[in-house]
Amino acid sequence: MRSPGVHLREITDDDRDAVRALRVRRDQKQFVASVSQSLKEAAKKPEANPWYRAVYCGDEPVGFVMLSWKPPAGLYKGRHFLWRLLVDKRYQRRGIGREALMQVATLVRADGATELLTSYEPGEGEPWPFYRKFGFEPTGEIDDGEIVLRLAFPAE
């Protein structure tokens, strides 16, 4: 199911407050930090080479995505690491997260990547089913209590 009109946009002063106001469901808060927290982490860790965008559906900000985009070798796991993906509770279960992740994967692959990594904290309501359905597989690694996942891009 594709969600029409989903696109990634740079966050500007005009939409920063609206993007920061996005919230996941209460039962998801243990798995994903808020947009404000994510932006603070990005500012504190410039060496991770953070790349982030608001997820829009039409003219409405509905989500947020952040990657560590080709950080210096050895500093972080992988050359492209999905650090944060969230869709506001009002817009979940509409295919928006999947479409945003599809667009991120396309951008990462166009950048020459052979894989996209992410991780999640296991627990009741964890995001593993979402990632598994998308094609991610466990790498067998555990990083800071989180299970590391890999989406491989087959050679063209």
Automatic annotation (TrEMBL):
Pfam families: Acetyltransf_1 (PF00583). One of its GO terms (molecular function) is acyltransferase activity. Its EC number is 2.3.-.-. CDD domains: NAT_SF (cd04301). It is an enzyme of class 2 (transferase). Coiled coil: none annotated. It comes from the Bacteria. Keywords: Acyltransferase, Transferase. Residues 6-156 form the N-acetyltransferase domain. This is GNAT family N-acetyltransferase.
